[in-house]
Amino acid sequence: MADERTVLLNRIQVCDFALNDAALYLDINPDDQTALEYFKKYSAMRNEAANMFVAKYGPLTRADYSGEGSWKWVDGPWPWQKQEEK
Amino acid sequence: MWSYSKKLQYPVNIKHTDPRMAGVIMTQLGGPDGETGAAMRYLSQRYACPFDKVTGVLTDVGSEVPKLHIGPEFPFIMRV
After folding, report:
1. Region of A58 on the Ramachandran plot (φ > 0 left; ψ -120 to 50 alpha; else beta)
2. pLDDT tens-place values along chain B, 80 residues long
3. I need a surface site. Which of A13, A33, B14, B66 has the fewest CB within 10 A?
4. Residue B52: which of A61, A75, A80 has the nearest Cβ?
């Protein structure tokens, strides 16, 4: 059973992948209502997961700073560093 | 990896063209000792960096030029 951090991060990754693909399609089909609905759905899902992730596990981007007494952006581990095996 | 904002980082207003200057700028941006190569080196150095704070700086500095390449300033530079 994966921990909550892994579940949230995985959800963000899945949504971002879907959003990226949908955005490429929408670039050349900007009025496709089905695609717009799809983008809206995954965008909301992504934002919800990202807000939960950032609140508990620290920033995903520098802009996620929300008033703590320390700049957590520079805290490791970075994504390419070995995490403890779960 | 890069996220793009549809805005200028700094206002650009080119008043006259200068092809020689354009060549200098293009080389400084993408040439053999240019900013793009430097950015790629910063981003690669992160992977062997033993200090989290320095990793943060390398990430942020290395991200500036790729943002410039895909940023709206780029066509202005091309038009110099």
Report:
1. left
2. 677 788 887 888 888 889 998 899 889 988 889 999 999 999 999 999 999 999 999 999 998 876 665 555 555 555 54
3. A33
4. A75
Length of chain A: 86
**Domains held by chain B: number:** 1
Q: Which residues contact A57 (CB under 8 A, 6 or more apart)?
A: A5, A8
Residue B8 is assigned to a structural domain of this protein? no
Q: Pseudo-torsion of CA B9, B14, B18, B23, nearest 10°?
A: 10
B48 in a structural domain: yes
Measured CA to CA, the distance from residue B52 to residue B41 in angstroms comes to 17
| pTM, full prediction | 0.80
Q: Are A74 and B55 in contact (CB under 8 A)?
A: yes
Residue B57 domain boundaries: 19-78
B57 contacts in A (CB within 8 Å)? 74
Predicted ipTM > 0.95: no
